TrEMBL record:
The keyword Hydrolase does not apply. It is found in: Cytoplasm. Its EC number is 2.1.1.177. This is Ribosomal RNA large subunit methyltransferase H. InterPro entries: Alpha/beta_knot_MTases, RlmH-like, tRNA_m1G_MTases_N. Belongs to the RNA methyltransferase RlmH family. One of its GO terms (molecular function) is rRNA (pseudouridine-N3-)-methyltransferase activity. PANTHER family: METHYLTRANSFERASE, RIBOSOMAL RNA LARGE SUBUNIT METHYLTRANSFERASE H. Keywords: Cytoplasm, Methyltransferase, rRNA processing, S-adenosyl-L-methionine, Transferase. It comes from the Bacteria. CDD domains: RlmH-like (cd18081). It catalyses: pseudouridine(1915) in 23S rRNA + S-adenosyl-L-methionine = N(3)-methylpseudouridine(1915) in 23S rRNA + S-adenosyl-L-homocysteine + H(+).
Amino acid sequence: MKFILLAVGTKMPAWITTGFTEYQKRMPPHMQLVLHELEPVRRVSKSTTDKAKELEGKAILEAIPKRAHVVALDEHGKELDSMQLASRVHYYQQLGSDVVIIIGGPEGLSAEVLQRADEKISLSRLTMPHPLVRVVIAEALYRAYSIDAGLPYHRA
């Protein structure tokens, strides 16, 4: 199985790429973490932000592989602790399909993307810059894997 991180945004700062890659490398071969970046739509005014969100939503929906389990990262999603995420990762392994985790653009995800999602998860009640979310979700997935596998990484 693969975790496919589908993220709106390109040209990340080097520290984001470094942080994401560190946890990506730690994932085991049977649970790869793959990043698929989507070009953001240019925003020039308030009137274009809604259109940008809609166009990014269409691009996201087109990029989702068939038969994938879709997880939308959304501020209104269910908050999980590390142990609960480990249980979800265990469940995902049993599904027999890839898991797509979606990070939207600055305005979030379109209604169509949220409707397509099989589940919605919130990483925190805090607002985070979208590039940072890549690093946070990569670390959280590695931590969840290590908990499920009984590795000593998580010390709670």
